[in-house]
Amino acid sequence: MATITLGGNPIHTQGTLPEIGTKAPDFQLVTTELGTVSLNNYTGTKLVLNIFPSIDTGVCATSVRTFNQKATTLDNTKVLCISRDLPFAQKRFCGAEGLSNVENLSDFKTGSFGEAYGLTITDGPLAGLHSRVVVVIDENGIISHAEQVPEIAQEPNYEAALAAL
């Protein structure tokens, strides 16, 4: 269990992030077109997992916009933006913002992604949602960076994540 804060108040996740140097846990997530993808869909590609509580909050939206801009310069890399939002909301947001360099994926059906990565919030007003996390996975499926952002309202360290590629 990790302790993070929301507005300075402690809240908890149900586990801890996978360790750097370990194989990334597989996942099944829903695309904005209602298809399903797994980690195997991205074999041979570097991944930045930008994980957050909801696309409809300011900091979450900022992280998606920032990674969308930075993704234009990344070779053999995909940025996956993952939340428990419905795929319709994710698609609406990216369409309205004109974002095309990130891929939005939803864990709305089962929450199993959040559980496998140890980042589901267990208490407080955001219980059941994902905490703000960035995980970088190399082209061999090995985790090279993992950041649990300590305060939900804080942006992730973009530069540290990109340096891990």
Q: What attributes characterize this protein structure?
A:
165 residues; alpha+beta; two-stranded antiparallel ribbon; 4 helices; 27% strand
| DSSP summary: helix tally | 4
**What is the N-to-C succession of helices and strands?**
EEEEEHEHEHEEH
Radius of gyration: 14 Å
Give the overall pLDDT as a whole number: 90
Class from helix and strand fractions: alpha+beta
User: How much beta, percentage-wise?
Assistant: 25-35%
Instruction: Summarize the amount of helix as a percent range.
Output: 10-25%
Tell me briefly what this model is.
This protein has 165 residues and is of the alpha+beta class. The chain has 4 helices and 9 strands; from the N terminus they run βββββαβαβαββα.
What does it look like?
This protein has 165 residues and is of the alpha+beta class. The protein is built from 4 helices and 9 strands; from the N terminus they run βββββαβαβαββα. The protein has a 7-stranded mixed β-sheet. It is globular. The two termini are 27 Å apart.
Topology of helices and strands:
Blueprint: E1 3-6, E2 9-12, E3 28-31, E4 36-38, E5 46-51, H1 58-71, E6 77-83, H2 87-97, E7 102-106, H3 112-116, E8 133-137, E9 143-148, H4 158-163
Parallel strand pairs: 5-6, 6-7
Antiparallel strand pairs: 1-2, 3-4, 3-7, 5-8, 8-9
